[in-house]
Amino acid sequence: MGDEVETTSYQVEDGPQINQDELILAQQRQIEKEISESTALVGDQEPIISLNNEYSTDTVYQEKVKDLASKYKSIRKTRPDGNCFFRAFSYANIERLLDNKDEFNDFYKLAEDSKEVLVQLGFQQFTVEDFYDTYMEVLKRLRSNHQDQAADREAILTPERTPRTGPPITIPIPLLGRRLKST
């Protein structure tokens, strides 16, 4: 049947039997560990032209960087771990909302109501609760810092760039996207 998974293993001469799947998984975990140790969830702001250094031999890419630089002044790199789009979107949205108190309050209300809406849409309550409380704590902290005009923007956002609190800002985005699609 299609559900069967074939594993590959072989015996080393006069040694133990080695499972190829386990070796592949171990290698994957090692690669993920190296990436997590060397790449921040969300990097510091950099001038867009810093991309020129990475792709100095690619003239097509250099032209694209030049075009981007005419529209934007900086970038933040994200860890390439499968959540990078959602993390970049979430982080940029929150960063943008810090500049607009009314929009931030509207978004806060949307996030606050999202738990009920997601459960009504059929998501399991325990699944939603896994991220909801942490996500709302992040937004509450940002909202209290948002009112302090002297607060350093980087200091406000730094906790959302660490593994402990970073992932929850990405989790609601696909779920909220489904909500927007269904309304």
Automatic annotation (TrEMBL):
SUPFAM superfamilies: Cysteine proteinases. Its EC number is 3.4.19.12. Keywords: Hydrolase, Protease, Thiol protease, Ubl conjugation pathway. GO terms for cellular component: nucleus. InterPro entries: Papain-like_cys_pep_sf, Peptidase_C65_otubain, Peptidase_C65_otubain_sub1, Peptidase_C65_otubain_sub2. Transmembrane segments: none annotated. One of its GO terms (biological process) is protein K48-linked deubiquitination. One of its GO terms (molecular function) is ubiquitin binding. The keyword Transport does not apply. It comes from the Eukaryota. It catalyses: Thiol-dependent hydrolysis of ester, thioester, amide, peptide and isopeptide bonds formed by the C-terminal Gly of ubiquitin (a 76-residue protein attached to proteins as an intracellular targeting signal). It holds the Pfam family Peptidase_C65. It is an enzyme of class 3 (hydrolase). PANTHER family: UBIQUITIN THIOESTERASE OTUBAIN-LIKE (PTHR12931:SF15), UBIQUITIN THIOLESTERASE PROTEIN OTUB (PTHR12931). This is ubiquitinyl hydrolase 1. It comes from Exocentrus adspersus. The lineage of its organism: Eukaryota, Metazoa, Ecdysozoa, Arthropoda, Hexapoda.
